[in-house]
Design brief:
With 142 residues, the protein is mostly helical. It is built from seven helices and two strands; from the N terminus they run H-E-H-H-E-H-H-H-H. Helix content is 51%, strand content 3%. Helix 5 packs across helix 6. The radius of gyration is 15 Å and the shape is elongated.
Length: 142
């Protein structure tokens, strides 16, 4: 199977399918700029890396649309590749203007309602368990 670098035109279709699967059927979309950023990125990790990028982006997404500057890792949003000198920058996320407290509140409420059952809390929030775990780690919730 060819690498994603050789199939850039298939990235939007793959990304939509991966988002549909990890979002549990929710209507999460990618902005045209985000699609362009994904197509410009070299994806040294192939489809698995695309899936990881989308899962992280979904975890950071506050609404129903993923944009390049707010949710995509900076290396992907800039169209760079780790092999092209981006270094660790693709793993660094840009800060959002939403306060940490407002991001923590819904997670803590869901955890309290489910007696700290993370799987049930993720279902209640409408996200995957992995996305909840990532958000909890990022926000310092134990």
């Amino acid at each position: 199977m060819p690498s994603l670098r050789e199939m850039r035109e298939d990235i939007p279709v793959l990304a939509r399918e991966i988002l549909r699967r990890i979002a549990g059927g929710d209507a999460i979309t990618l902005s045209p700029e985000a699609i362009a950023s994904l197509q410009a990125y070299a994806f040294p990790g192939n489809v698995r890396e695309l899936e990881n990028v989308l899962e992280r982006s979904l975890a950071l997404c506050a609404g129903d649309r993923i944009g390049p500057e707010e949710e995509l890792p900076t290396g992907v949003a800039g169209g760079a590749s780790r092999h092209a000198g981006a270094g660790r920058s693709c793993r660094v996320f840009r800060c959002r203007s939403i306060s940490i407290a407002s991001r923590r509140r819904p997670i803590l409420e869901a955890l309290e309602k489910t007696r700290f059952n993370r799987t049930a809390a993720a279902k209640l929030l409408g996200i995957t368990f992995r996305a909840l775990r990532y958000r909890m780690e990022r926000l310092g919730i134990n």
